Amino acid sequence: MNKKIPILEIQDLNVSIKEVQILKNLNLIINKGEIHAIMGRNGSGKSTLSKVIAGHPAYNVLSGDILFNGKSILDIDPELRAHMGIFLAFQYPVEIPGVSNEDFLRLAYNSKSQYEGQEEINPIDFLNLVNDKLKIVNMNPSFLVRNVNEGFSGGEKKKNEILQMSLLNSHLSILDETDSGLDIDALKIISKGILHTLTDKEKSVILITHYQRLLDYVKPDFIHIMHQGTIVETGDATLAKKLELTGYNWLDNIKNN
Ligand code: ADP
Ligand code: MG
Description:
Blueprint: E1 6-17, E2 20-31, E3 35-40, H1 46-54, E4 60-68, E5 71-72, H2 78-84, E6 86-89, E7 96-100, H3 101-115, H4 123-136, H5 142-145, E8 147-148, H6 154-168, E9 172-176, H7 184-197, E10 204-208, H8 212-217, E11 222-227, E12 230-235, H9 238-246
Parallel strand pairs: 3-10, 3-11, 6-9, 9-10
Antiparallel strand pairs: 1-2, 1-4, 4-5, 7-8, 11-12
Bound molecules: adenosine-5'-diphosphate (ADP) and magnesium ion.
C-alpha cells in the first residue's frame, strides 16, 4: 500500500445557516485515492457538508477548519476551490437557460486550464475531448447544443454532472445523491463514469447516497453515518449492508450534544 496522503481534512467543523447550527464538531479525513460514502437520514446535514467543502457562501463556518492538500481553504472562494480540484455534483443540478452545455463545459474547462497556466483549448480539440467523455456516460452529442440541464430528465441531469466531473478531472469529487432517482441502466452508466475517473489512483471521491446499489458498483473504502450534523459512525463497506437491515432507528439512542 502507498503511504496515506490526506487530500481533505475536516477538523472540528461547526457550521450554521441563518443562525441555525447544522454541522457540529464534524471530523473527517480523506486520503488520496480513497472512496468514502456518507449516508444518513434526510436532514442530517450531508448536503450542507458538501456545499461547505465547495465553498457555498450561504453557510457560515463558526469554528474548525477545512484543509485541502494541507492548506486551509476557508478563505478561498468557490471558483478557486473548483480550480484547485474540488468538484461538487449537486443533489439538484441547476438549469442555466440561454447557455449551451458545450459553451458551459468549455468555459469551465478553459478557466481551469488558465488557473493551471495552460493555454485555452481550441474548439475542435475541445469537441473531440468532450465527445470521448460523452461516450463514457452514454450521452448523445445533441446534449451539447442544448441549454445546460434545461428540460433534461432527472437521469440526464445526473449524467451531465458526471460528464462535468470527468471533463474537469478534479482531485476530489463530491457526488451528492447522484444515484437518486436513476433507473438501473442509468445507475450502471453513472457508476462506470465514476470508476473511469478513479482509474487515476490519486483521485478521491465522496459519495453521498441512500442506496447500497451504487456501493455495489463503486466500492467504498469507508462508510460514514451522519446524524444531527456530525459523523456518528465510520466503518467499512459492510456498514451499508447492516443499515439495509436495521435502518436508522438505532441512531436515536445516540446523544449528540
Ligand atoms: P441532508 O442533505 O442530509 O438531507 P441538508 O444538509 O440538506 O441535509 O440539511 C440539514 C439541515 O439543514 C436541515 O434541517 C435543513 O432544513 C437545514 N438547512 C439546509 N439549508 C438550509 C437553508 N438554506 N436554510 C435553513 N435551513 C437549512
Ligand atoms: Mg441532501
